[in-house]
Amino acid sequence: MASEAARSISTRERLLRAGLRQARRNGVRSITVRGLCQQTGANLGTFVYHFGSRDAFVSEVIERWYAPLLQSLTDTVDGDLAPLQRLRGLVLQMADWAAANRRFITHVLMDAAGGEPSAVRFVRSLAGRHPALILRVIGEAQAKRELPPGEPVNVLLFLMGAIALPMLLVERMTEARLAPAELSRALSRLAHEREFREQRLDWALAGLAKESGNAKRPVSRTH
Question: Domains (ranges, CATH) in the chain?
Fold first, then answer.
């Protein structure tokens, strides 16, 4: 009985890993049950036993990819640091994750736009997930006058504009070959490397702290 359970868990895990690899390469729309079974040596009955349907499987693949980020952000939110320090950590974590997963993120968004049900549900669920965590900490920082008053969503947009927008713009510009290769490489380095993302975030937070009447440097940079 124990060996059968071990084999069952192993088969389930193989299917999920194969699904995640396929999704990273070509998006979740490319996942087929037949293809997964061929890759893993599983049969249709085993797949149905573990997941019930392709849609349920794809949803689990997406959640497996996303869960580590959500847990990491939750740990930061629940930490003992001051709100502004936790906010800094949250934004850096998000930027690091986006930089490491930008291909998968693009796939999920395109799959959602194409009507893939699991991707649509995931994208629609996001407002109550990591953005809600970040907005909660922004509210705490505003309550302690570490940030200026105003719509927390606008603060988040401002910070994301400093961190994520340059990454997106440079990537699109590079793909379209709108600048000489040497300039594109230089801009890509400034937009994507963590040192420079961190610097832009600290500039943004320092400006917000000054606007709130707290001229003290909000956080110390880490290296």
Answer: 1-52 (1.10.10), 61-211 (1.10.357)
